[in-house]
Amino acid sequence: MVAAVRVHKAGGPEVLTFEDIEVPAPGPGQVKLKQHASGINFIDTYFRMGMYPSPVGMPFVAGNEGAGEVIAVGPGVADLKIGDRVGYVVPLGAYSAERVLPAERAVKLPAHIGYEQAAATMLKGMTVCYLLRRTFDVKKGTTVLIHAADGGIGLIACQWANALGATVIGTVGSKEKAELAKANGCHHTILYREEDFAARVKEITAGALCDVVYDGVGKTTFPASLDCLRPLGLFVSFGSSSGPIDAFNIGLLQAKGSLFATRPTLNTYAAKREDLLKLASETFEVIGSGKVKIPINQKYALKDAQKAHRDLESRATTGASILVP
Ligand SMILES: NC(=O)c1ccc[n+]([C@@H]2O[C@H](COP(=O)([O-])OP(=O)(O)OC[C@H]3O[C@@H](n4cnc5c(N)ncnc54)[C@H](OP(=O)(O)O)[C@@H]3O)[C@@H](O)[C@H]2O)c1
């Protein structure tokens, strides 16, 4: 039996139950990991509250990102062996001291990536990679708006977009968060709880507006995010930390300048193993170069998963959070 955090019924942070579970031996194509750290992500709250249905029914082990050491290998697994250090992002199962994982979703960690770093990189770092390098080609001369620029995704995105030569504008929830975003490569910050962020973007860019808006906040920043885009600009709605966008009138894209809009997810961009490995190696490389650091600003014991979710949902965190068994 090993310690894990399970959800037996959908609800608030109180449904995260710290308990012992049995972890089976790995089946064909699977490996078993001794986990060293698990990432905490907003998506974990969507599964917990039932906004995203659990693919394995109830109860389920929460968490979607982690890293650990291979301790057993199932039949048919050729490229992993006991002792290998791996990271992964898969739906559910991460908040646990041990777990079984499909080998084809495990990525070997290079020596310069530690377990805790990997537990905040596999989902958040690779998401930033596809958002900046696949969904849009951010480069010198690009102006980007990143909402919640101080968050797990936000701080990585600010550093990476800055390293690519972009002008980075970020919205943040407080003055302290603004300082942190600036220290992580954000050129201009906007206090979006007090200021009209679309008007400020217009002012900062002298009317030129942004080429791309990265919006993981959702409900409270829509549709004003569209007013931050230049004609033919791209609206990337990649999350809903304030709640989902209820209705999307496609006519808005015409009215606001023949805009483009997309609602991407890492699952699609990393669906094929070759794409997963490319995203991972690009992300490990930018970390290795020192251009992007993974800021782990909150670390909780596995038994404190409820507090970790409360902190995340009450906007009390900055950067990445992890759980350690
Ligand atoms: N599509 C994908 O592939 C993908 C992958 C990973 C993550 N995501 C999405 O990216 C977003 C960020 O994820 P994360 O894990 O890095 O979280 P996070 O940004 O660290 O935390 C959420 C932040 O959102 C801001 N926020 C604004 N309104 C909020 C509200 N009503 N309640 C709570 N927070 C609010 C807060 O920052 P301020 O105080 O500065 O406002 C808060 O700190 C989430 O929407 C997540 O679902 C999407």
Overall, the morphology is: globular
The Rg value, from CA coordinates, equals 20 Å
Beta-strand percent range: 25-35%
Could you tell me how far the N terminus lies from the C terminus, measured between alpha carbons in angstroms? 13 Å
Which regions have little confidence, pLDDT < 50, spanning 5+ residues? none
Structural class by sheet pairing and helices: alpha/beta
Q: Which bin fits the share of residues in helices?
A: 25-40%
Strand/helix succession? EEEHEEEEEHHEHEHEHEEHEHHEHE
Integer average pLDDT: 98
Number of strands: 16
For the report, how would you describe the main beta sheet?
7 strands, mixed
Q: Which cofactor or ligand species appear? A: NADP nicotinamide-adenine-dinucleotide phosphate
Number of helices: 10
Q: Which SSEs are present, and which pair or pack?
A:
Elements lengths: L1 E6 L8 E6 L8 E11 L1 H8 L10 E2 L3 E9 L11 E5 L8 E5 L4 E2 L6 H4 L5 H12 L7 E4 L5 H12 L3 E6 L2 H9 L4 E4 L5 H8 L5 E6 L13 E9 L13 H5 L4 E3 L3 H4 L3 H16 L7 E6 L3 H9 L6 E5 L1
Parallel strand pairs: 9-10, 9-12, 10-11, 12-13, 13-14, 15-16
Antiparallel strand pairs: 1-2, 1-4, 3-5, 3-7, 3-16, 5-6, 6-8
Helix pairs in contact: 3-4, 3-9
Give structural notes:
The chain is of the alpha/beta class. The protein is built from ten helices and 16 strands. It has helices at 42-49, 115-118, 124-135, 152-163, 175-183, 197-204, 251-255, 266-269, 273-288, 305-313, and strands at residues 2-7, 16-21, 30-40, 60-61, 65-73, 85-89, 98-102, 107-108, 143-146, 167-172, 188-191, 210-215, 229-237, 260-262, 296-301, 320-324. The mean pLDDT is 98. Bound molecules: NADP nicotinamide-adenine-dinucleotide phosphate.
